[in-house]
Specification:
Elements: H1 2-23, H2 35-51, H3 56-71, H4 80-84, H5 92-105, H6 110-115, H7 117-123, H8 129-141, H9 148-159, H10 164-180, H11 185-196, H12 201-214, H13 226-232, H14 238-255, H15 262-272, H16 277-286, H17 295-304, H18 313-326, H19 335-341, H20 347-363, H21 383-396, H22 402-413, H23 418-434, H24 439-449, H25 455-469, H26 477-485, H27 493-505, H28 513-523, H29 530-546, H30 548-563, H31 568-581, H32 594-598, H33 622-626, H34 663-668, H35 674-688, H36 692-705, H37 727-743, H38 749-775, H39 784-802, H40 808-820, H41 837-845, E1 856-857, E2 868-871, E3 879-884, E4 897-905, E5 911-920, E6 926-928, E7 933-936, E8 941-949, E9 957-962, E10 967-972, E11 980-984, H42 987-996, H43 1016-1026, E12 1030-1032, E13 1041-1046, E14 1053-1054
Antiparallel strand pairs: 1-11, 2-3, 3-4, 4-8, 5-7, 5-9, 6-8, 9-10, 11-13, 12-13, 13-14
Domain AP-3 complex subunit beta C-terminal: 808-955
Biased composition (Low complexity): 687-699, 762-774
Keywords: Cytoplasmic vesicle, Golgi apparatus, Membrane, Phosphoprotein, Protein transport, Transport
Amino acid sequence: MSSNSFAYNEQSGGGEATELGQEATSTISPSGAFGLFSSDLKKNEDLKQMLESNKDSAKLDAMKRIVGMIAKGKNASELFPAVVKNVASKNIEIKKLVYVYLVRYAEEQQDLALLSISTFQRALKDPNQLIRASALRVLSSIRVPIIVPIMMLAIKEAAADLSPYVRKNAAHAIQKLYSLDPEQKEMLIEVIEKLLKDKSILVAGSVVMAFEEVCPDRIDLIHKNYRKLCNLLVDVEEWGQVVIIHMLTRYARTQFVSPWREDDGLEDNEKSFYDSDDEQKEKTDKRKKPYTMDPDHRLLIRNTKPLLQSRNAAVVMAVAQLYWHISPKSEAGIISKSLVRLLRSNREVQYIVLQNIATMSIQRKGMFEPYLKSFYVRSTDPTMIKTLKLEILTNLANEANISTLLREFQTYVKSQDKQFAAATIQTIGRCATNISEVTDTCLSGLVCLLSNRDEIVVAESVVVIKKLLQMQPAQHGEIIKHMAKLLDSITVPVARASILWLIGENCERVPKIAPDVLRKMAKSFTSEDDLVKLQILNLGAKLYLTNSKQTKLLTQYILNLGKYDQNYDIRDRTRFIRQLIVPNEKSGALSKYAKKIFLAQKPAPLLESPFKDRDHFQLGTLSHTLNAKAAGYLELSNWPEVAPDPSVRNVEVIDLAKEWTPAGKAKNENPTKKFYSESEEEEDSSDSSSDSGSESGSESGEEDEEGDSSEDSSEDSSSEPESESGHQSDTENRRAAKRNSKTKGKGDSKDGKKENEKSKTSDSSNAESSSVEESSSDSESESESESESESRKVTKEKEKKAKQDRNRLATDASLLDLDDFNPVSTPVALPTPALSPSLIADLEGLNLSTSSSVISVSTPVFVPMKTHVLLHRMSGKGLAAHYSFPRQPCIFGDKMVSVQITLNNTTDKKIENIHIREKKLPIGMQMHVFNPIESLEPEGSITVSMGIDFCDSTQTASFQLCTKDDCFSVNIQPPVGELLLPVAMSEKDFKKEQGMLTGMNETSATIITAPQNFPPSVILQKVINVANAGVVPSGQDNIHRSSSKSLERPDASVS
């Protein structure tokens, strides 16, 4: 042990010597006790000499060491006079370091800094942008009111500087000047308005921060810059992103109507899918104005989505709160995965994230239920993290997962962290209160904890049991007796007081035990805690009123003890009780009602989450963390009933391109081609203006006019690459396209026509697929006849438009731009092309020499009777559901798997309005739900059909099976064998197909069995039982073949 400590001392001593050697050139003076102090003095003297040297190298070395001292947290303020002399140095490196030093100490040494103010003013004109910016920083750091006019002038000049770095520092200086002199607010707002129009990503975050500090209520300054800020958001530095997102959240709450009405609209549409045409018309007439999301609202939500993948936890948290506060409830679920990812960060980040998740999980449990295991407590977690995770687990508890959680809680109760163990017991109590099915289980478990060795666990269990017994006291007389016996061993005051309160409330149910408990308490009255004394007095009063024969003298004795107690609360309570229960001449009218007062029925306590009232604070803010309004907190306003005028966000564009357009060109244009001619004008205007905000404004305005076009509803899919691409690259593509279209001859127009038709067909199919993802079953409600007629119109329009002398690239570019800002509306089915892309591909692949396809679907050889539990009758409160795979072609779609669901009512009451909602499907997966069932009689059963497109995978399809009163989360996971269709083919064709599957798509395995145990019929039966395959005739007895094909890829077979 001694050798180790000696080595450590040697090491630390060596490190100290090195540090002294770096910072001081002189040797330590020989004087013993004052050697260290004298070396410090020598060190600073040495630095002063180096700063006064004629050599730039010495000055530079000195400044590097001084800045190093500041970085280590050492005080270098006494060097200020020596450093400030070098502020006018011609060496740029020295000057930059001097400015770094002055920014740190200018506020402390104001008088000396003022001496060099003329130098700072000259530096504002320096050709080096870093010097100009540093001079402004130093100037704004001198907190003296006398130089406010100089600072104001410097900020105005810097705001117009060519360097974005200098403009960024001007935005920082605005906040410093405003805190120094708030009277300059109006002039500073003018500078902020100018800087908000800046196109640089360096400036955006800083000027929004200045806006939030100086004039957060001036929303009118944001209108014209809203779209630009949304588009720049991805490229702004991280802390700028946080500030901008918080500001735009507040902006959206004042300028757009609530999107939370959208969900109701979607549910109504989903129900009306099954109605007749007349009923659907009536409903449509009633709902003439459905919710339509403003395109600017959608722009903000779409452009912040990529930031959920940011490496900065603050950015992810900011986007999460934006989605929580302004996005439709159906889209807010995407933030849960990103927030759970942040739980891998350090404990400080975890604490803030968990606090916000705790608030979210109260209102929307479904968001975090899939990630339940991420909130399990680890042994290495600090207590604050453990407590928050417990809170979230309690919020997420339901009938389906409570058994798993209670097993988890049993482990937590045994934790060495006593505070955490006590919090776990409180959590068990809350779960017992919220979920009536497990109340008795939790109560019996808590009673078992009463025999625990740890006093804190026992005390907390007593307190929780007391609250649970208040809900149904008549049923638990034995528990009260058991707790009365614990009074001799429990010493924690709260627990003792709880037991006494319980006995007092139930004194008539335990008439033999209550008087004896009072007798014991009277003996120890003087040594008890004040909390326990108050409950002893209450117990005595209640027994005096119910059993005065046995307890009259005991109560009088206790009242006499309380009369002379040191605590005035106990003395007051004693006088009050004596006057109330002991009748005498002075007793008032209240004495008649003493029994009603003391033995009144008390309401059961409501165990609520401590995070219940935090939702009125904006998530991710300091106020939310503290649960109190912090200084500078800006409240989120309520959604407006009617949206303000959206045209205020439109930016005027001067269309200079018209001057360069030949006059004859407009005459040759067909007036019916307005859609494309407007987009061309849009391209011309974007060439003359580099402001992406103005570009987006004109485009969104154009889309409002063209709202009936078939392209509008394709905007909903936020995962399209076009929607997340930058506007600058779009502008370059359009310019290149225009150059190509001018140089291209008429001879190329025919080829261009074919390519155009092909590209438009693919665009239409892409739009159709995105619409299907967004609108689920709504898109399927369109009739086939309507889609065919509309598709013919689209094809004719494309043929007309292809005759124009346009380059294909230009057309694509304009379509991309239109797709960027389409308004979100209620889901509308897109007109399908006359030939689907897959059919076109098949037709192109046909060859005269090819024989007919060997893959032909046959009827299933065997249909297994096995059913899977979808909803257990205990979890479904009497509603049971099972599902099976009938192996029949799905009537809802050729790529869907047919699923039969059998619903049983095991209760003695009628279950009404059984339907499906809140589908949580992976990307690409689709579901066709069954028609809502009006009612299911007691002991009744009904079988319904659904179609699910599992996208050729075994991913789980999660959704909610709902009745009139309840909703239950359920999921369906298909076996691999049910994703196939049986195929009939000859042995020759089988071998041919099998040869095409070799390589990466081939899987083989060998199973050795005894022939007598597994005859050929049994082997075939086993195969077709697990897979929906067809049997292929075989010429050999020892070889068995079966074949099937994939639902998702009809051309692929499985042998």
